[in-house]
Each structure stands twice: as C-alpha cells, then as structure tokens.
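Morning. Coffee machine broken again, so started the prediction first thing and wrote up yesterday's gels while waiting. Chain of 444 residues, entered below exactly as on the submission form.
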Amino acid sequence: MMAFGMWTRGIPGKKCGTIIFTAEELSNCRDIVTMQLCANKLDKKDFFGKSDPFLVFYRSNEDGTFTICHKTEVVKNTLNPVWQPFTIPVRALCNGDYDRTVKVDVYDWDRDGSHDFIGEFTTSYREFSKGQSQFNVYEVLNPKKKGKKKKYVNSGTVTLLSFKVESEFTFVDFIRGGMQLNFTVAIDFTASNGNPSQPTSLHYMSPYQMNAYAMALKAVGEIIQDYDSDKLFPAYGFGAKLPPDGKISHAFPLNFNSENPNCVGIEGVLEAYFQSLRTVQLYGPTNFAPVINQVARCAEEVTDGSQYFVLLMITDGVISDMVQTKEAVVNAAALPMSIIIVGVGPAEFDAMEELDGDVVRVSSKGRIAERDIVQFVPFRDYIDRQGNQVLSMARLAKDVLAEIPDQLLGYMKTRGITPQPAQPTACSTSPATTASLGLKNLHI
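Came back before lunch.
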C-alpha cells in the first residue's frame, strides 16, 4: 500500500485541507462473484414505518483501512429484506486474498442522506464461498447498543442465499484464442462536404496534411488492423453519384469492385478513398442503414465467436434515414458487431447521440436494442490546438475504441461463448502481443 497527499488551495496562499491518495497493486484474479443476501428481524428505524434497509460492502486494505466496494439497492418498508443478486469482481471484494476481512454495514435509507446505522458484521471471501449454510448467517451488531443494553443480542441477522463464482474472460483472452476483428470502413460522400477540389471542403486533399476523414480513418484503422490477420478491409462510400450513369449509391465499394470490396491495409483504404474522390460526384442524402445492413449480413453468418465485426462510419452531417438506421442498429445489436461513428466538420450532431445508447438504449418499432453497440464522437473535440495531428489521432483512437472490448465481451457472455485455448504465436508481433499498443489499454 502506497499513500501520498497534496494540499488543496481555495484562497491564494491559504491551505484548505489535504487530499490523500492510496494505491495498492491489483492481483491477477479474474474471478467474478454473483451473490444474493437477505436479512431477518432488522431493527425498526422509521417512526412511521419499518426500515428501508441496504447493505454497504467494504474491502479491507493493507494498512487496516476500509474502502467501499459495493452498495445494494434499498428495499423499502421492511425488516426482512431480500436484496437482488449482484455481481462483483473478486479483486474489488478482497483483491484476490480470500482470507482478507470483508466488512458489511447495514443502513436504513433516509431521503435526506442521513442514513441510520443499523449494525455491521465481518466475513471473508472464503467464508462466503462456503455458500448457503450455518456459516453464512451473520448477526448484525450495533456497538453503541451493545455497550448500553445488557440484554442486547443483535439488530437482526443477514443470510447468504446464494454464491456463484465464474471466470471473467478478457478481450485479450479471445484474441489469443484466435478470434479475428473484421474492420469495415464507410465514408460520407454527400455534397454537404463541399467540393473536394476546394480547400474549404472536408474532403480536400492537401499536399501538406491529411483531411479529417483521412485522419479519423488512419487513427482508428492502424490500431484495429493489428487484430485482423489478413489485413483485408472492406471499404464503402455512401451518398454519391457513380459513373458512368450517375446512379446514386449508399454502399458502393471504394475500389469499385462489387465482387471484392476489400482493400489491402489501411494504406489501401486511403488510396481507394482518394481515388473515389476523383471519380464520383458528391450528392446525397446521408443514409446510414444500407451500409449497416451490409455489414450486419456478414456478421450474421459468423456467430460462433470466431469473428467480431467493427464498422467505422465517418460523416459530416445529420442522418437522413434515421428511422431505418435505428431499425438497423437494433437488428445489429443481436450480432457480433459494433459501430463507431466519427462526425467531422462544424455541423451539430445532436441526433447522433440518440444512436449512442450510453444513456438510453436505441429502440425501433417497440424493440429495444439488446446491447449498446454504437460509439459516436465529434472529431472537432480531438483536434490539438497546436496543430499536432499525431496527438489528435491518438486522442480520437483512444476514445472511439474504448467501448469495443466491453461490447465484444457483452456479446460473448450473453451467448455463452468462451475463448478458445491460446494459440501458439509465430512471432512477437502477433495481435495478442501488440494489444498493448491499442485496445489493451482501453478498459479491457
């Protein structure tokens, strides 16, 4: 356990207190625990009712202090609550030390936040692991009551109803087992981007620096390509008129090969993108659904956990087919697939937040998306003020890729898919070893 502090200052020259930081090295334990508890005959704390009990779990630290690691929900107006099952990593509960003390406080919830203390008990992971038995019925004790009342017995009991341990697999476990990320790119070729031959265009090909589309593509693609062994990436454009007849397309291959839309490496995608700018006529509208459905059809064919599909869409404006896009996202949420949307240019992207289901899950025709698979970011938030493109790209890549590991693990877990045994690697630059360059650092 390491600790250090720093002074805080509100008024210049005046110390307003100390903030103390403590740190402890995490164990390698990957187990997660799902448990459920109930209580019996807790003390009545509410004048007009019974009690509104909840539990607070504390992990003991190496220096003897305690840190909150979990709070249950509040069960209203009862002295015999049954709390919902909850899941917690073993690292959070005891940092892999099965005999380390776990302290549990029982409180009566109050609206104003001045929750009444009912009592406490201590246990350990090892005790919990014995499951439902006489060992896991705990007396809830209130030290103040015990000191004042000679006949005091307890303030109720808490009983462990169930305890289940599972291994928590990581993104890297799946990569080591041979799972492939299939990376697809879709680029907005609508007229609102401006004439590519003019410097004001978002598609302008300057001889001195990359445009926002190229930067976003390169930033995300160069990390994801480490997880795709064949380095072949399907790349599409949408919202353009195509030669020779001027037909509008919302999912045309950037290499104009409908039989094989793959480009070799990110450099191949960039080359096809620049060539398309010289060939097609920017038009509209901004339809997302065709490309999403195109990738979803591919993902639908491989649902055994051997492949996961990531679609990067780069756009400058408001989606024209929002109803169809929401339906496409809801359908895709049931597939091994994630969608990254990068907004470029000065437009308002408020509608895009509706697709990014961090707060409210996307729904369509009464169906709610099974999981959140969309991550939206506006590129302008990542532009370095000093004009450092490398730094801008690094910031962008970090944020847009941050949710991919959890989205992938969420899909695998709901389908009961576990990683294959780690495959032997031919060299030290395999995806599993290069993970530290990108996704490994992004909340795996």
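The longest helix spans residues 265-279. Going to sketch it on the whiteboard this afternoon.
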